[in-house]
Amino acid sequence: MNEILKLENVSYIYGRGTPFEKLALDNVTVSFERGKITGLIGHTGSGKSTLVNLLNGLYKPTEGRVFLDGEDIWTNPKEIHKIRYRVGLVMQYPEYQLFDETVREDIAFAPKNLGLSEDEIAERVSESAGFVGIGEDVLDKSPFDLSGGQKRRAAIAGIIAMRPEVLVLDEPAAGLDPRGRREILGGLRLYAERSGATVILVSHSMEDMAHYCDNVVVMNSSRVYKSGTTAEIFSDPDALSEVGLDVPAVAKIARELCRRGVNLTGTLYTVEGVRDAIIAYMKGGTA
Amino acid sequence: MISDITLGQFFPGYSPLHKLDPRTKIILAVLAIVTVFLANNTASFVFLTLITLLLISISRISLDVIIKGIKPILFILIFTSLLNIFMTEGRGEPLVDVWIIKIYTEGIVRAIFMALRVTLLIVLTSMLLTYTTSPIALTDGLESLLSPLKRIGVPVHTFAMMMSIALRFIPTLIEETEKIMNAQKSRGADFTSGSLIKRARALVPILIPLIVSSFKRAEELATAMESRCYRGDKNRTKLVKLEYRARDLAFMAVSVLILTAVALLSTLPYSMSFSGLLLDIIFYKI
Questions:
Q1: What is the pTM assigned to this prediction?
Q2: Closest CA to B181 of A142, A58, A144
């Protein structure tokens, strides 16, 4: 596997030496494949958000090492901000980071910090606004006048404008309506395809995982429970339910059909995949 | 990390100190302040330091936490100590006499006492109040102690509520600040290098989101309170009724004794006290 990011025996402890000490990650080793969309699932408190903050050097591992392109990102702690340009992190509820007078200015914040020229900045702003579906007319509004969904997009555009090699998003679609989810996640997939960037997506929604991700990493109580391709992960619902997670509803239906003698083959965890499998079955009988 | 700040933070526990009535602790804190200011010689300071250490062991709060809490005021401590050392003029011969710098034994003694006094003040009050009392209990206690003022029209309950809301949101704001800082760091913001003006300007991307979310949070809180029919203290009952127990009386009695002891110790004449003795040993008999 061609890996771009790798965590090696990483542990992270919050509030070390205080009564509130808490082990958030316990000896985690995991790698992320270059150019793919990897989903990160797990219960609240399973260590997902901590892991995400370790990927771009916001947190320093208590133990273990983080590699980007084969290099330990903490070799030179003074240069850690350079890592943050290469691994773009969109935090949970990123709309809270908006601060500038116009959306345009706000998206330009990161490119400005990169020290780019005016033209280059303007180009990146309109490019990243395009990916998340923000129109020209919205760019000159105050970010505080936007709707929740638009704020979210503006904030995501603010990270994409750095053109990161790896884009990490912590629940980018949380609290949005189904249409907003589709638009934001679709935009991200488009971005991944066009730029060749690696995307790491934290989500609670199995449907989103099945639909958008190539690989899935399952976290449970501070450890990596399972990782593999989306098909591998969703083909074993028992393992998932053991840690309190579920497969997509459509995968359950497909499984139940198989159990009752309807032999389906194909991508049995997305609506489209199951649909095609059923059609193939109906046409070809028990193929 | 900012969240490592411990000064003014509550550490939950079940020690006798945690179980005291908050009103008792407020009164004890006032007594402690008076006592610390009464102390003025080695005997009284040694005695008070021992009492403080005893209190720390009763509270079962680790010494690390206490030391961490003093760290933020370390600079002030060192600064005032140096001032005392260099600016105090004593009677006898100066210990050091180089150019315009004259250091007298009195200066050193004063610096030590000064530093000790401030440290004891901070440790004692934070031990009694913030470390072992939850903010809610603290404001309840304060409200109860100040309730006589209601008769002359002081809105005690409102003040107490404002205080408890303010205290309640300190950790939330710290958390929020950290989150926003991390978000802006992820966009390449730099808060630690550059000129003073550049660094001040770097704070704008933190302060604006912080203020915006604070206003939003205040509004949400007000709505939540109103939708639960909050109307101030009229006909309002308490979930936890404050009650004095034997424990409170005991602590009160002991601290009055300590106060008296310190007052007596501090009247010891200089030559008879330990300070005279100690200084003799340190500075003249070597």
A1: 0.72
A2: A58
Q: Which residues pair with A41 in a beta bridge?
A: A218
Residue A24 has pLDDT above 80, yes or no: yes
Q: Which amino acid, residue A26? A: D
Q: What's the pLDDT score for residue B1?
A: 44
d(CA B75, CA A250) in angstroms, rounded, equals 64
Strand pairing of A37-42 and A198-202? parallel
**Contacts B204 to A, Cβ<8 Å:** 99
Tokens of B87: 């600016």
The domain of A45 spans 3-98+164-245
Beta-strand ranges (E) seen in B136-182 are none
Query: For chain A, what is the domain count?
Result: 2
The answer to the question of residue A149 being in a domain is: no
Contact call for residues A223 and A28 (beta carbons, < 8 A): yes
CA-wise closest residue to B127 among B3, B245, B236, B36: B36
Q: Specify whether A255 is located in the same domain as A213.
A: no
- Tokens found for residue A6: 């790798």
Phi, psi of A71 (to 5 degrees): -110, 135
Average pLDDT, chain A: 88
- Those residues of chain B whose CB sits closer than 8 Å to some CB in chain A are 3-4, 6, 11-12, 62, 64-65, 176, 179-180, 182-190, 204-205, 208-209, 212-213
Closest CA to B86 of B75, B76, B97, B77: B97
Of A30, A66, A25, nearest to A45 (Cα)? A25
Position B60 scores a pLDDT of 86
Distance CA A30, CA A5 (A): 9
Please report the ipTM that was assigned to this predicted complex: 0.85
- Test the A interface: residue of B186, B193, B198, B212 with most A CBs within 10 Å: B186
Q: Decide if A17 is inside a domain.
A: yes
Q: Does A107 map to a domain?
A: no
Amino acid letter, residue A92: Q
